[in-house]
Amino acid sequence: LVKKTYEYAKKELPEKIFNHSMHVYYYGAAIVNTHFPHMSSMLETYFLTCLLHNIGTSDTNLSGTRMSFEFYGAYKALKFLTQNEAPKDQAEAIAEAIIRHADLGDTGTITSLGQLIQLSTVFDNVGLNAHLVHADTIASVVAAFPRNKWSPAFAACMREEMALKPWCHTTANEDNGLCADVEKNWAMEPYE
Question: Which Gene3D superfamilies does the entry mention (predicted)?
Fold first, then answer.
């Protein structure tokens, strides 16, 4: 399942988005290994989640639906995982985490899988929680999977989605200045 998902993501995602997915995995794995070792048993499911979490932002998917990228991405991921015989609980947990990965509010509860992808996604996109990942880890990850100006590309992608779909979920975060925060990602600026 991991191999099929990796190949699917590599084929479907532009290089910048694929590399971001790998950043999110490696930063999350580092967070688990350093701060939450009791969560290490979920790293395979987390890897699948990372590979698929931005499937809704590919050019085809972003403009091919009226759904917000997180929701359409979760739908596509659930469909792919189910067709490839992922256990139902695992496939649904991944879809839930994809839907919730951009819910950056401070109310409610979330699964450990969802929280981990939130932590590592906002770290790669905005630079939040930089104290959780060592600078050597960042350098190694970016050397293997270059950012290639990911911050401005992602901000442009979010603006494109909001222009195409003024009702999309991204607008909830843009009210808090998400695109500007992505563009001024101080933690990743040296690696852009």
Answer: Hypothetical protein af1432
